[in-house]
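Collaborator request, handled under Task 6.
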Amino acid sequence: MATESTSIENYLIDMDGVLMHESQPVPGADAFLHAVTDAGLGYLVLTNNSIFTARDLQVRLRDAGLAIPTERIWTSALATAQFLHSQRPGGTAHAVGEAGLTTALHDIGYVLTDRSPEYVVLGETRTYSFEAITRAIRLVRDGARFIATNPDPTGPSTEGLLPATGAVAALITKATGVVPYFVGKPNPLMMRSALNTLQAHSETTVMIGDRMDTDVVSGLEAGMETVLVLSGITSAADIDRFPYRPTLVLESIARLPVGVRPGQVTIPTQPLAGVTE
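Structure tokens returned to the collaborator:
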């Protein structure tokens, strides 16, 4: 765990619920990112969403007024591809997902096939089909190793919650008896891969997220101080249901002073400089 004398050098920032609500930015998120950059600190935006490539997300964030370079975006699809490359370089996989996942797998030299693949890799998609799920079930029953990008049971949309990777993975597990290996948050593997990408150390890095069950626990298990923002999934009433606590709880990322250890923050009663709510 970090010590009080160690300064903050980097931030790992969840995307949905912290920086964005679908296509809308969280008020003050842009000011926080500018303050981090102006202070000469590093950051990486994390997301369990495997639908989009980092380039796709960069454009979506830019259109919402958040200027974030592609190299500062890390997805569960990228972490999954990195994991598979470390396990079986140049392997084969059957992917259930969209461009974020298939592009990441192609980029590490994987061949995508439904003929005796070494892995079935389940990712996020807004168009899960009975045919695709049935094919994945049959391949897993035939011996393919089962990997999933993230365990989130639901995801956000403008119409409300949608079933996500974790829910579909549970269906495949029920049909096959095979539990997948989830790579994304809260797996510490996702956090270590992000820290390595950022060339950061957990003692000088803060995790900022909106979910106790993924963001806070993964940051805690990776040895980081954690900030829970109440602008997303977890509400203040939910916190005491968990056997662990974040270092700091704030209304939104706009309330977090840059460069200050979360354990030393005096919660401001007014928005930070440059932030309008």
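The cover message to the collaborator said: "The chain is about 30% helix and 20% strand. The first helix runs from residue 29 to 38. Please let us know whether this matches your experimental observations."
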